[in-house]
Amino acid sequence: MWESGHGMTLTTRPTTPTAKRTLKDAAVTVLNPRDRVPVSFIVDDSTCLVNLAHFGIPHFASTFPQRYQQDWRALPREIPDSFVRKFGEWSRDHGVKGKYSIVPYPACVGWVDRDMPGWTVQQLQDSLSLVPDFMTQDWDIHPEMISHTWAINTKTGRPYTERSARFMENFDWSVGKSADELGDYLAYGLRILKNAGLNCEGVTTPGGFGSRSLAALSQATLEACRDVHQTEVPHYFHHYCTDATTSVVPRVENVSGLGTADPRCVVSIISCTRDWFGGWDGLKAGSADQFITADLEKGRMVEVIEREEPAIMLCHWPGIYCNGQETGFNIFKTVVGRLHERYDNLIWMKTSEIARYWAAKELTTIQHRDNQVVLDAPFAASDFTLSVNTSIETPPVIQTQCEHCELKPAATPRHLVAGTFHTSKLASKTVVCVDLPKGRTILRL
Q1: Which of 227, 275, 337, 357 is deepest in the core (most CB within 10 A)?
Q2: In terms of Cα–Cα distance, which of 184, 249, 169 is closest to 219?
Q3: C-alpha–C-alpha distance, residues 346 and 292, integer Å
Q4: Is 376 in a helix, a strand, or coil?
């Protein structure tokens, strides 16, 4: 089952155009980075100061009164910076990386690059500075459209006057929109964050935004990110999938310009879980067991990690804070602890790092000639890892336009880092890990 946003279901795999595989060689396999399983954490509905659940529920309820009956007045209006730092420090101490949204105009309360009514200018500046000064080391920053509630007229900067699902970002506003129209909308949100000093390599869609315009959304992300932030490998988060039989590997889409000076693509990042922490409003606690059970044997993360596919968890910021109770945060800490207890082959990555790696994995041309492997990469990627069907006696040599160096042996596959190799005579295989540059690289065995 493919799903998007807050539970809108797609009955078939999205039809967005994906990459046509480039030339590969059967004797060479591209592995996960450092031959480990990527894991990541997606944080939605976050922004500066504003608790989106408190301010957003009245907007949703005005259109769908029977669906949104939470007592929003009882929810805190603010998720404090002290909690952002607490969450960020714990995550850094435990190696966690991922994506953190900054909604540019949260529920139309105020603009993160200008003013946030209800808070002083200094409070907003302090909150905003926490993001580039502290969070971006471990987290990608995405706009989650513009307001996450009412659609904004990008010519005026004001919400459209009609109050219906047709003019809500989460619901119907994107239906029937062209790639150019969606690109204009995405670019508007990206520019606000750029004005605020935040660089973005991708976007996140709120709710069902783009669900019925997937091809346009993919192309719009590509164009908007390249235009506003000059992003080389744009990516977007729209789907999650909890079906045990369906792959959740990133999808490399809208590829063009291979073999030229201007290769292009966009990557769809897919979460393998739903929000089983505290929900989007912080009112419904989940369970760590849905991710990984106490005996470390079952759970959605176990399913995906055992397949060696990127295991990306999804949460919503109000549900991590849980109205000051931090229930979702405590569930998350339990999940991370269990994952690290069970596995020694995980690698935490930002979503942009996963996107770049998959673009390089899918689009790098690989040819095996005698005792060398020739790679032509449209995009650079760190920790690029290859398995070659041969065992070797002497260290392999990497040759690029900038360097010519001998790789160092790794004691075991778990010790692989960039610039090392591990060979197995029993399996007649050699695994090589390098920081792959853009352009041609020759691996001499």
Answers
A1: 357
A2: 184
A3: 14
A4: strand
